[in-house]
Write a structure and sequence with these properties.
The protein is built from two helices and nine strands. The protein is about 10% helix and about 65% strand. The chain has a single domain, classed as Beta Barrel (Porin).
C-alpha cells in the first residue's frame, strides 16, 4: 500500500512541476495479448490485459500510469515421490499497478512513432497453494504506435516484467525472480489539440 501511495505522489508531483504538461495532449487506452513466462517450468503461456493513460511531459518524454493483469497457463510437473506421475499445477496470476516512463515518440499524432519503456510497479502474485506475494517490480520494453488519426492510434508493445521473490516451495528458499514477457496490441484515444 505504501509503495502504491508513493507511486501516485511521484506521478502527481512530476505532472504539477512540469511547465510543459498543459501544452500537450493526453490519452487513455486498453491493451491485450500474450503472456510468456520466461524459464518457469511450472507454467505455460497465458493472457495479458490492461488499461493505461499517457501524460506527455515533453515532445519525447511521457509518463503512463497503468494497470496490468497477467495470467499464466497451467503447467505440468513430475512428482518423483509418486513415481514420476505428471500433475497439473496452476500457473498463477499477476495484477500490477504502476507508472511507466516512455522515451521517444509520445505525441500520438497521425503517423508512426517508436519508443522505449522503463517502469516500476506494485505487483501481486497469486497462486493456488501459496500465500499471495506483493513486491515492487520492474517493467522494461519497447513500443510502436501508429496514429490512424490525430485522436485514435494503435500500438504494439513488447514488455518484460521482473518480479522479485523468495519462494520456499519451489526454490528451496533461494531468492530470485519470476520473469514474464508480454506481447500486446492496444488502442488509444487522445484528448487535446489536433495538428490538422
Amino acid at each position: 500500500m505504501k509503495f502504491r501511495s508513493a507511486l501516485l505522489i511521484l506521478l502527481l508531483s512530476v505532472v504539477m512541476i512540469s511547465p510543459m504538461a498543459q501544452a500537450f495532449r493526453f490519452s487513455v487506452g486498453g491493451f491485450g495479448g500474450l503472456n510468456l513466462p520466461v524459464a518457469q517450468e511450472d507454467t505455460k503461456s497465458g493472457t495479458v490485459l490492461g488499461l493505461k493513460a499517457r501524460i506527455p511531459l515533453t515532445t519525447f518524454l511521457a509518463v503512463e500510469p497503468n494497470y496490468t493483469y497477467l495470467k499464466n497457463g497451467d503447467g505440468e510437473v513430475k512428482v518423483e515421490t509418486l513415481g514420476d506421475i505428471t500433475m497439473t499445477r496452476e500457473g498463477g496470476k499477476y495484477s500490477t499497478f504502476g507508472v511507466d516512463l516512455v522515451i521517444g515518440g509520445v505525441s500520438g499524432y497521425k503517423g508512426f512513432n517508436a519508443y522505449g519503456i522503463l517502469g516500476v510497479a506494485s505487483a501481486k502474485f497469486a497462486k493456488k497453494g501459496l500465500p499471495d506475494l506483493t513486491k515492487g517490480s520492474l517493467w522494461l520494453g519497447v513500443g510502436f504506435e501508429f496514429g490512424i488519426t490525430d485522436y485514435l492510434s494503435v500500438d504494439f508493445r513488447g514488455k518484460g516484467l521482473i518480479f522479485p521473490y523468495k519462494d520456499d516451495s519451489y526454490s528451496k528458499g533461494d531468492t530470485g525472480s519470476r520473469k514474464n514477457g508480454a506481447i500486446t496490441i492496444g488502442v488509444n484515444y487522445y484528448f487535446g489539440v489536433s495538428e490538422e
